[in-house]
Each structure stands twice: as structure tokens, then as C-alpha cells.
Amino acid sequence: MTTRAEALFDPYDPEHRAQPYRVYARLRAGGPVRRTPSGEYVFSAYAEVVSALRSNEFSRDLEANADPAASSTRARRTLRETAREAKTILNLDPPDHTRLRRLVSKAFTPTAIERLRPRVGQLVDDVLDRAAARGGLELVDDLAFPVPFQVISDLLAMPTDRAEEMRAWSQLLTATLEPTATDDELDAGQAAAGQMAWHLTEVIESRRRDLGDDVLSALIAVEDDGDTLSHAELVVFVLLLYVAGHETTVNLFANGCWALLSHRDQLADWRAHPEIGPAAVDELLRFDGPVQLTARTPLTAVRVGDTEIPTGATVFALLGSANHDPAMFTDPERLDLRRPNAARHVAFSAGIHYCLGAALARLEAEEAIGRLIRRFEVLEPESPPTWRDRVTIRGVDHLPLRIR
Is the pTM of this model over 0.70? Predict the structure, then answer.
């Protein structure tokens, strides 16, 4: 018999998508680990989520290690079907993950990222200048999408003439991350991956003939003890950079702005004290981060609390729930930009799969949100935001603002 606690995690439930943090609270109240009627195991408490993210007992490579018969959730298709010879770094375990991360990390040093700050600030100011002239700002289309898209394009020295196509392809790809993805959505995502890969291959081949001072050139040239990225690995990694480099940052901007507009005392605090920007961004990531869950599978049977989880089971680690666990964060439903331990959030995951672009996302959010709230004395929503109907990637879809 399915208990009420077991039935709480239902990605098809409209309430889950609209009010996930209410669902998470009920899940945690029922215990840190629950098995769903469809066969997955759900980790909702901070300690258990972090343990799964950091433990070598759990694999990120569900394609290779998860048992399809152990879950009724549709099998995820990966970029491997597009590249044929490579998986995205997100879906690799050591030693393959270690090798690939070592190679690509050379292009993402803190010094290299910090050098981007003036460019990010200029891009944001240009958007805000145009918005001031119009007297209005659509948060997502005018600011949250174009700035991080331009930044990742600058970083890779990629052409931006196909920005709208890239955005559409990215959204089709991220839809495949949903537990509720249909066959049609999976097919559309695979087609989008193929189109993106074809476009990126053309750019990569052109860059090989004329290397420059950019991250794509550095990735082409990177070498470590004679090891280099294969063509397929390079295509898949650049594709991932494009998608992750702007798609999740779009939601960080938009979710964070809405949180501040809903908590005017916190907005006023950051406006009056710009120096709290880095801590403020961490709290916004904790409060309503863009990535709400990630999947793992145990390589051997493991016991978590009172629950025995068999080899090959699908485990959903609820990042959003961990970030609202009162065992870690006091009064977690309250936005507090001066929260002393906000940086312990898991919005960027943890362990070996900690987000490679975390420093860039933080920098972009600090510049974009900080400049927005300081530029305009009047910053009011014209209407409530609309949200993407997603479980894995949570984000504001549309939010028009009155500004002055």
C-alpha cells in the first residue's frame, strides 16, 4: 500500500511544479528518504542529499549503471546519441570524469573569470540604458537571457547571429531533463542537440584554423601529459557550456529578482550596502535556485537511515529541498541576504560534480541584479510572474517591470 508520505513526490502534480517548497517540507516531515510509487528513491534532507552528491557509492552515469526496470521514469537520453563517441561531463564518473574535468578546468580559472567583470557590467548597463529610455523592462527577454548568452558567446568567441535559435534549442534540451518528459519532447530535444552540434562543429573547425585568445581556442589547444580532448568530447563540452552557461543563469537572475521584489526589506538592504553582493547571491541561490534536483544511482546496495536502496535504483537528490532544510538553515523560508551560512547551499551541486561555471554565474548575478536594483528607484512588477512548468529546472518565464 502506498502511504501518504510515499505519494508526496509526484512530478505530474501541478502543486509540485507551482509550489515545490511546500511539497519539500511535507517530504522532509515524512523522513529524509522515501520511495515513490514509480520506484525511485527521493532524498529530501540536507545531510542525505549532500552525502549522495559526495559519495563514491553513487554514480552520475545512469545510462551505464541504472536499472531501467527499477523505475517507471522514462529513460533519459544523453548527448552521447548525438556525439556518438562522448558523454557530457555531467554524466561521467571517475576516471573519465576526472580526466575531462582536469582538461577543461584549465580554461576556467578564477582569474580568467574575474577578468570578465567589466564586460558583464557594461552589458548590463547597456540593457538598463535601453530600458530607461523605454520606461520598462521585461526581466527575462531584456536582461536575464541576453546578458549571460552574450557572456558565454564572448567567452567562447562564438558568433551570436543565431541567438534565438540557440535559445530555442537550449530550452528543448533542458525539457529532456524533466522526469515527466514525453517521447515527443525527448525526440525534439535530441533533434535540437543534433542541430546545435552541427552548428558548433562548423565553428570549431573554423577556429582550429585560426586560434585566438578565447576559451574555445584554449579547449582546442588544451593538453595535459599528452592528453587532449577528442573532437566528440569538445563538441559535447562546448554544447554543454552554451546550454548551462546561459540557461540556468537566466533562471538565477529571474528567480533572484522576483525574490527581492517579494522581500522589499532585503532589496533595500542590498541597494544600500552593495558590498553584501556576493553573500546576497548565495542566499538567492539557496532560496530559489534554478536546479531543483539531480539524479544518481548506487553502484552497490546502500543503507540510508532505515532504507535499503538496491544497486541500480534511481535516486532523486532534491537540491531545492536540501536548501530549505531547517536542520541546516534556520528559518529557511525567510529570505535573509545576510544569512551567515548561505554559502553552504547545494544549488551548484557538491562533490566532484560541483558546477564548473559557478564562479561565472555568481559574478553575472552579482553584477546584473546589483546594478538593476541600484539603477532604478522605482522597480515594480506590472503583473505577477509566469513560471516555466518544470520540476528539474525552475524559473520565471515572464516578468514585465515598471522602472524609473
Answer: yes
